[in-house]
Every structure is written in C-alpha cells, then in structure tokens.
Specification:
With 184 residues, the chain is mainly beta. 7% of the residues lie in helices and 53% in strands. Strands 9, 10, 11, 12 and 13 form a 5-stranded antiparallel beta sheet that branches. It has a 4-stranded antiparallel beta sheet with strand order 1-2-3-4, with no helix packed on it. Strand 9 (124-132) and strand 10 (135-142) form a beta hairpin.
Length: 184
C-alpha cells in the first residue's frame, strides 16, 4: 500500500487529512481524522511486540493508523490530488478521476465520515476547494474554462465561468472575498 498526495484541514478539534491510497494497483480517496489532543498524534504508533510480529507473519497485515480512517470515494480509479476544506457545517473534499471527471464529497463534522460523494462535472478536472466563515466554494477546469461554484451539505451548485485556460495547468487557487458568496 502507498499513501500519497495528502491535503489537510483542521476542524471541530480534529486534524483531517485526505490522501490517495493505492493498493494492488487500485486507488481510493481516504480521510484520516485524528483528535488534536490524541497522545499518539505527538508520539506516533508504538512498535509491535514480538507476539504481534509473529501473528503478522501468517496473515495479511492490518493497517495501523493514529485516529480513524474512512473511505471518501467509493469507487476505485485513477484519483489525482484530493483536496479538503472545512467550514462550520463540515468538511468538503474534491478530486478528479480520469474516467469520471470532477468529484466532491461532504464529511459530517461529528461522525467524520462521508455523507455523500458526487460527480459534479463530467468533463471537469483539477478541482480545488476553499472555505470561508459563510460557506465553501470549489473551482475547476472544464472545456478550456475556469469554473467556480458554491458547495454545501446538499452538493455542488451550478458553476459560473470565470476565465479561460489552455494547455496543462496547475490546480486553480480559490480564496474567499470579504463579502459572503464572493470568491477569487
């Protein structure tokens, strides 16, 4: 197994880390959620004792993590660079899949699990999320254009075209304005 491309946000007393987990040539987007006061966050996992090491030799090794790990994407695919941003209502993640477009998910702040995940742009790529005191927004590329939309507990709203792009681009940056509902 290989974990790569992490992104993190702090919310509701938890460190929330999304990443791509690749195992057996299959990848999923995962969320690792750790309480900020968890003693293992500072010290790390304790090494296995001899009895545990012997038991691991004869069975498939189990993942060992600090905190709680949850799957965000339900499908295996070629997921690239997951992103996360947390607002008052919860955390939002976004990623793209070469076979599915741009996807997003809502993570419940009290349970730490994905309530929904949806494809919001069939031809979309490189989505990025950001939060503000009044909500969250997502930006992505689609058909040579830069699009921006609000994202909330119910899903991603209809996107607005805010610019044009050509060629291979880095991920868009999205930041809130001082007025509610305004994004740069």
């Amino acid at each position: 197994a290989q974990a790569s491309r992490p992104d993190l946000a702090i919310s509701d007393g938890h460190l929330n880390i999304v990443f791509a987990l690749e195992r057996d040539k299959r990848a999923q987007v995962m969320l690792l959620r750790v309480k900020l006061d968890d003693p293992q966050l500072k010290s790390g996992l304790q090494p296995l004792d001899e009895k545990e090491k012997r038991a691991q030799r004869y069975k498939k090794p189990e993942d060992r993590v600090v905190g709680k790990i949850e799957r965000v994407s339900t499908e295996y695919g070629k997921h690239s660079q997951p992103r996360i941003a947390c607002a008052k209502v919860g955390c939002f993640t976004s990623w793209d899949d070469e076979k599915a477009g741009a996807l997003g998910a809502f993570v419940d702040p009290s349970k730490g699990q994905a309530i929904w995940h949806k494809e919001f742009a069939r031809q979309g790529s490189r989505p990025a999320v950001a939060s503000a005191p009044w909500g969250a927004g997502v930006a992505w590329f689609e058909g040579g254009r830069v699009k921006v939309a609000a994202i909330n507990r119910d899903g991603v709203q209809e996107g607005s075209v805010v610019g044009r792009v050509g060629g291979l681009q880095p991920y868009p940056a999205i930041v809130p304005d001082t007025e509610a509902g305004q994004w740069y």
